[in-house]
## 1
Amino acid sequence: MDGKHTSFDLLYNPRLNKGTAFSEEERKRLGLIGLIPDGVEDSETQLQRQRIQLEQKPTALDKYVYLSELQDRNERLYYQLLTSDPAEFMPLVYTPTVGEACQKFGHIMRRPKGLYVSLKRKGHIKDVLRNWPVEDVRFIVVTDGERILGLGDLGVCGMGIPIGKLALYTACAGVPPEHTLPVMLDVGTNNEAFLEDPLYPGLRMKRIEGAAYDEFLDEFVQAVQEVFPRCCIQFEDFTNRTAMPLLARYRDQVCCFNDDIQGTASVAVAGLFGANRILGKQLRDHTYLFFGAGSAAVGIADLICQQMVREGMPSDQAHRHCWLVNSRGLVTADTTGLSEFQLPFAHPHSAIKDLAEIVEAVKPSVLVGVSTIPHSFNRKVIEAMARINERPVIFPYSNPTSKSECTAHEAIEWSQGRAIFASGSPFPPLHYKDRLFVPGQGNNVYIYPAIGLAVFATEASRVTDEMFLKAAESLAAQVTDQDLAVNLIYPPMANIHDASVEVAVHVAELIFDRGLARVPRPANIAEFVRSKVYSPEYC
């Protein structure tokens, strides 16, 4: 390629492009004179322009599309913008906006990002991975699109999830974006509307299942080990039917984790640590009721049980403190059709269908929603929790916002201001009887980017549940007394970058302590981890 082409192409390489921020010397040296306006601007001027243009977009989805195109034009400016105000921009690049973006992905798709590994490539997945232009991939977020958030089977349109997740790896914890790769496994879709949509960009076939599916997944996992040997795989938004078996199959074989199971569990436990600082209790002092009995619920319950064991409670007794509710009602020892991972939480009890009646019978002090059933924590349920507990802990963790089991206002009002509340989706601050309440967002974004930075820095060979407990402890320790005074049990979202790096340091220490690192232990782990943090500032 001749020099002219090289200079012009520089402006179309998002990783290298600085637009109007190229200096006069750079413009002369790189042959950019005349290709951009002569005014040399600093990044703050560029950010001001982006903010003005973004404000002109009428809807959250329009803003999502605009930010996606900015990422395609100027990657560093994109991350400068995200880190300038995480509380404002994270809901636009991930939940709740990403849900609508995935539903309409085939209609709003611009420049493709990541890799699409379809069933047509079975037997040749290594070749597909080698088409990626970066050899040293350290993180893959992969989904098959079957259970996108609470929205169901979106097929390849679920690609917005890996893209958004990895953007937050970088924006929140400074994992270098050049080492990340979003992957969509296209194994078909059972979404009839998509199969009939002429703009659906994936395979037009029903999903494969059973042995054929397992073989395809296994080929993918093994191909990653060969092509990207230092890579960690994050399984994302797989259905309950496959999520737990996938994690069980590979967690002791390769470096991998499932954020829906382990990340959700970690952020929930961090919230419980925060709530217990208000209550003056430990995790072993509670009874837990999970509305939802899938992989997310069981993942949270498992990690809670591990913590209760650390607090001195026998394992079988810890399990008896956790109850599940599925679509048929309270899960009991007589409930049929349970998966193996649900059985430890199936206790002797009479069958009950109604959630409020279940609350009255089980008498939980902590109610966790992972059902994706909106408004299922109705007034009757919240009032029952408040009647049983002086300070009920209520965590409607389903997202996007449209799937939340209740709003912050409902939980606070119906409990007469006594609920300790956190949710999966963001809710604004509110006043109740002259008191300020700042709802915490129990978002996995507090956890998985930090785990990612720790794994990236240490080149960990495995990801363990102990790392997620350490992450929860570290995150909860950063909540101040001032935060707790307004019922905020997570660090403010505005501080998420510093919070994530701090969590990563503690997780990295554990990785070295457990002999899981593939690099030598440094004299100062905190300095070592911070030296790996990506800066979006122009070089």
## 2
Amino acid sequence: MRKGIYIITVILLTMCTLCGRAQISPYIDSLINLAYNAPDSLAARYNNDVCWKLRNSNPETAIQFGNKAIDLAKKTGDMEQLVKGYSYIGVCHRNLGNYSDALGYYELGIENARQYGVSDQEAYGYVNLGNLYIYQENYDKAEEQLYKAMNLGNQLKDSAILAYAYLNLGRTRLGKKDYDKSEENFIKALDIRTECKRLNSQRNVVRKYLADCHAEAGLIDLARKEYQACLDDLDIIGDYDLLSDISLQMAKISYSKKRYDEALKSARSSLEYAKRMGSKYATMNAYNMIASVLYLQNRYKDAADNYRDQINCNDSIFSEQLTQKLFNIQFSADQYKKQSEIERMAKEQELMEQERKAQRIFIIALLGGILMVILVLVILSVNNRKVKRLNAQLQEQKDELSDRNARIEEQQKLLIKQQTQIADSISYAQRIQTVLMPTQEEFASVFADRFIYYNPRNVVSGDFFWQMDCDDCQVIVVADCTGHGVPGAFMSMLGICALHGIVGNGTRTAGAILNRLRELIKTLLRQTSADDSNPKDGMDIALMVVDRQCQSLEYAGGNIPLIYIRDGELLEIKPSRNPIGVYRNETPFVGQRLQLKKGDRIYLSSDGYASQFRDVDRQKIKMSGYKRILKETCGLPMSEQCKKLSEEFDAWKGTYPQIDDICVAGFLV
């Protein structure tokens, strides 16, 4: 069965690999065949080779091969391939812009390399960490890691390691604006890769950064020449990461020289390569450059469309900076039209005034020669009537201008209101989500002493807690949905509404509720099968049905256990290894009964608390640490225990950002 699944996976991945990369597909295809047909002792190596070859062109597919390599390496005890698997997957996450995931895999690779004595991979791990710190503009930390790599490279006399170290040291100096030192390090890396034949194909990366150095130093023509030479080299075909970056740099050079058509062409090439690779940061930067060029060409609508695409690429959909740019473009476009209209009206008014003045002069001159005394009275009378008529016309035009100014002010107020609505929409989404979830007091019908520790990573959360009182029981749920922020909140509201319908229609057993919930979620999300063509959205969940009369509960869970402390001993009821949603090895959810005893303390929790990294050493709290805190604080009142959980969490993460939503529910029997 497992072999059949693997065959299907290989076929699907091969098809994905062949699409859009015709120039490298035969080689990748042969590697995939080797990965499948080779014995376990060699399969890990071939899966890692596929992962490495796809890291820049299709990093999401590459991650799947890297994970397969790790599984095979653990099975066969091949520690070198195990370490490579962690490192390669980290590079894929970095290309996708998932820096926290990349950091986790890099550190796993270094830890295992030190443990098993794989020194060359330990050195590459330091290079990868340094590279990641460069992306975060933390150049001092980057240099610290790169010097570690260089020391190991000198001990091993490994040219490849030294070339990587010099290359990235050049990037740190470039970030610090030390162009001479930067160029010196890049030239050392280029010399090493030129002298070593097996590294010749990697020269383009060095030449690209050398061109970056020239561009930063103001040597624009030299930089352009280097970039074009890289693009013309056949070795770069299929490296979408490098192609996207070089195209973007070419666009910036053309932009600085006001060659906007050339800049637009290069930026669009960068966007195409970034989309092929799947990198959200490269895609976002390309959209930004396209929008900037279009804005200077007064193509406001097209610029606004590209800024919208840039906003959609951002992890936070309501990015304040980009939204402000969009507003400014729309406002500028409206003001441009309004100002043109005002200038046109002013010119027309000036022409009308000149015509009226000429008419008055002609009439006065004509009538002045005829019967001066008599006609003067007539002229004065006629002119008086004309003046009144002109005053009336002027007043009418003044009123019209006043109305137009009022409409302009109204439109300005509308634009400001729309901007405020965009800024407030995420806060409103938070209020909606809060209303859908119960208050802590609503748990009091069964558990007088209880707490809910609810701490979203962003304003809104993919975690939720829920309860419903029935005739003779109370249904309580803690769930962890796919995603964070607004996408996670959508999933949580979908889960809450589904639970209202299922329990409200009379389903009272834990297993039946979860089985019905899974089928309903799969139907709503149109998840027809567990292959890669279907979205894997869903949720992990823990659900208990508390019987008030019998003082017992029935528990069922998908990937979230029920933990309880009885007489000072921490016990656990294991969940089913199934999520709510489509899953390849789907099994039915089954309820497990627990007779409650006075003094029992019951806990349900998403994995956000245990997954948090520590600031000082990037270690996770893990489930063992979470259980330790529960056991140490179980003697406190539930409200104090909740406060202690929050304090322990804040002390653990320090300045490190929160990586996941958190929801912990505790109840005292």
